[in-house]
Structures are given as structure tokens and as C-alpha cells.
Amino acid sequence: MKTSKRLESAIKKLYLAFHNNELHPECCKSCAVGNILDRTDSWQHLSDAHGSLKLNYLGNVHEMLNRRFNGYTPQELLKVEATFLEACGYELPFRRKNKRPENPEDKEMLFQGLSAVIELLCKFDNVQNVMDYTKLFAIVNNKPKYNLCY
To answer: Which tens digit of pLDDT belongs to each residue from 90-139?
Structure first.
């Protein structure tokens, strides 16, 4: 399957962050978007609230100028972060008083968040979800429909 450079890069960064325990939904440098953007937090100035889908003035300016951050538009970045937070169990937009998970570093919860983000990133690039493993179990005449290549 052919994927874009931005998708490959984003998945690699998220994979490394997950396995290096550098993924934290409540930190702008360590969240999904923070990791995609090389562990920077400058993206947080694109909206007025963490987890919001609404661009603020600065975000709209970047969007109108067709500015891209590691290949992603400001609106795409906000969608990625909202997807990540929501899949991790946060009430959006993120505020201290809103619903949130007891342990924001729970690996299973983070995996659910990453799975949702990767599905979204694949949709952005119009490619099949790279996390979809259902084809591995497809059967035709009691035999696997697809052969695994090692």
C-alpha cells in the first residue's frame, strides 16, 4: 500500500512516542499533535482551547495562507487532537473540570487514542486504514483470502 510521506512520518513519530512513554494527552508537546510536530507546542496557538475544532484568528490566517505543519493544515491538526482526546475518554474541549480518564498514561487508553488518530490520518490521505487487520481473517472456501508476505 502506497502512503504519503506525511502519513509515514506521523505514524513513525506516534509509534516512537507510544513506546518511549512520551505520549501524554494533557501536554501540548507530548500529545498526538505535539508528537507529530516534533514535540513542539506552537500548534496550541491555532485555537483558544485544547481539543477545540474551532480555529482562532491566528489559526484562520494560517489556514487561509494554506500553511502546513509537517504536511498538515491547521484544521487537520485540530481534528487530530480532538480525535485523540475523545478516543482517550476526555470531554472536549479539554478543561480541568471536564470529564477525563483517571490515568492519562494508561497504555491501553493511549492505544485506543492512537488507533483513532491513525484511522483519521489515513482518511485525510484517502488510503485504507493501516491499522485494519480484518483482512488477515478473511476466508474464501475455508482458506485465507490473502497471503501474508514476510
So the answer is: 999 888 888 999 999 999 999 999 999 999 999 999 998 887 777 667 77
Of 57, 60, 56, 39, the closest CA to residue 47 belongs to: 56
Residue in the structure block whose three cell numbers are 487487520: 133
* Alpha carbons 135 and 114: distance in angstroms, whole number: 20
H/E element, 81: helix 74-87
E strand or H helix at 85: helix 74-87
Whole-model pTM?
0.86
| Domain locations in the chain as residue ranges | 5-144
Phi-psi group of 15: left, alpha or beta (phi > 0 → left; psi -120 to 50 → alpha; rest → beta): alpha
Asked if the model's pLDDT at residue 150 lies above 60, the reply is no
